[in-house]
Design brief:
Belongs to the GntP permease family. The protein is an all-alpha fold. It is built from 20 helices and no strands.
């Protein structure tokens, strides 16, 4: 089976609790409630997902106690499976930022790029920083660098900023341990290591097209000078300052941060960032190369490559290679790790509530119904996953909600597919989840304000970039589906 258009006849999903169109109306009603509450009533997505789940179950004809049981079961399993990984990822990202390791990565990559290569270097910076960090955290971290490099190079804010945004967004949509990919992997029971490897393979050409190539074009119709929002006072330790040309001559025009010499170096920081990636890829490779499950090397890599273990090891190692190496005391390390948790409380609740919403959808049998319909219509599962995620993304403005809902609806469609094919479905959903960011997306306003653009300019740059990123991702995933 070298395409994803053949669906298995058997499914372990529950039987539909009602007629076909009755369940479709129930699912659409639940999604409409979520959209209306988030976009019109401005209700927090956590509450909107609870209301949407209740709507789906009640309209489908299920008893209220049954709906409550389904929601709580889904909420708990998602919090246990995905929530722990999000927490560990946040701790790692906080250590990376507070130790100066993120600054070291940025300064080294940008500092070795010539003027013509700066957009490509910024795409690489965005991808590396975006690998362990949430999009919003990475954006806030990179904005001072984007401003400074744009001013020094004279290329303008858009040709420098768009590639960095493309790198961040692609990692957010395609590569675990970000919440979106993790949710889809958990829901569809995909192999995390294999999905990570394929996600990186999909992200590279996607970033090139939506980042440096599109950035050069967008920079021609939207010309903006970099603001001085993050200019530091002279002499501030660790701040990037605007020094004179004589004091900062370099091919790229970028100035390294003035940090303590005790800070982690580039090689050590990069090795720490890639540690969990290598462990998870090692597990995936061992499963392919080593046939005997009982071999000691296979058993060791299976344990070390488990996402929970890999991220836990990464956090512990980062405490020494990043935290202690930068001069953090035990009290400072404790404070750093603890301060990473409050900002992700909302994300954890939304993702877990999305798991509850997913379970209600599953228990109504809508997934089984869609599987039967798609099988009869011979619809590509990759295309269907992308379309569902894209529609929900446009309607709700949330990539996470789009991923949760689309993966819930796709459950019955991946039975019988190979591990590689299921991973491609996950990536197709991830590509659809970043489609056409507009006014109902918090990221739209975040980029608009940081870049100092009008709404129209934001549509021409950020929204267009996200759309190109999404469509290019779909094309690359579809191409891989022909050979996997």
């Amino acid at each position: 089976m070298n395409t994803l258009t053949v669906l298995a006849a058997e499914t372990t999903l529950p039987d539909p609790v009602g007629s076909g169109w009755h369940l479709v109306v129930a699912a659409l009603a639940g999604i409409a409630v979520i959209v209306a509450l988030i976009t019109w009533a401005k209700v927090h997505p956590f509450l909107a997902l609870i209301a949407g789940a209740g709507t789906v179950g009640i309209v489908a004809g299920e008893a209220v106690p049954k709906v409550i049981d389904s929601f709580t079961a889904g909420f708990g399993s998602t919090a246990a499976g995905v929530g722990i990984l999000i927490v560990l990822g946040a701790m790692f990202a906080k250590l990376l930022a507070d130790s100066g390791g993120a600054d070291e990565i940025v300064d080294t990559i940008v500092g070795h790029a010539g003027p013509r290569m700066l957009p490509w270097a910024m795409a690489l910076v965005g991808a590396v920083i975006g690998l362990p960090m949430f999009f919003e955290i990475g954006l806030v971290l990179l904005m001072p660098v984007i401003y400074l490099v744009a001013r020094r190079s004279g290329l303008g804010l858009i040709p420098i900023g768009i590639p960095a945004l493309a790198g961040l967004s692609a990692m957010h949509g395609f590569v675990p341990p970000h919440p979106g990919p993790l949710v889809a992997i958990d829901a569809l029971h995909a192999d995390l290591g294999l999905t990570l490897a394929l996600g990186v393979a999909v992200a590279i050409p996607t970033i090139i097209v939506a980042g440096p190539l599109f950035g050069m074009l967008a920079g021609r119709w939207v010309v903006i000078d970099a603001p001085r929002t993050f200019d530091a006072d002279p002499g501030t330790v660790g701040a990037r300052s605007e020094s004179s040309p004589e004091e900062s001559e370099s091919d790229s025009g970028a100035t390294p941060s003035a940090r303590s010499p005790k800070g982690p170096g580039f090689g050590l920081t990069l090795a720490t960032i890639l540690l969990p990636v290598v462990l998870m890829l090692g597990k995936a490779i061992a499963e392919i190369v080593v046939d005997d499950d009982g071999q000691w090397i296979r058993r060791i890599l299976d344990v070390l490559g488990t996402p929970l273990v890999a991220l836990l090891i990464a956090v512990v190692v980062a405490m020494f290679t990043l935290g202690r190496r930068s001069g953090m005391t035990r009290d400072t390390l404790s404070s750093c790790v603890g301060s990473s948790l409050p900002p992700i409380a909302g994300i954890l609740l939304i993702v877990s509530a999305g798991g509850g919403f997913k379970q209600v959808l599953v228990d109504t049998g809508i997934g089984t119904l869609l599987a039967d319909w798609a099988s009869a219509a011979n619809i590509s599962v990759i295309l269907l996953g992308w379309v569902l995620a894209a529609l929900i993304r446009v309607a709700t403005g949330s990539a996470t909600v789009a991923t949760i809902t689309a993966s819930s609806l796709m459950l019955g469609l991946v039975d019988g597919l190979s591990s590689g094919q299921v991973s491609l479905v996950v990536l197709a959903i991830g590509a659809g989840s970043v489609f056409l960011s507009h006014v109902n997306d918090a990221g739209f306003w975040l980029v608009k304000e940081y870049f100092g653009m009008s709404v129209g300019q934001t549509f021409k740059t950020w929204s267009a970039m996200e759309t190109i990123l999404s469509v290019t991702g779909l094309i690359v995933v579809s191409a891989l589906g022909l050979v996997i």
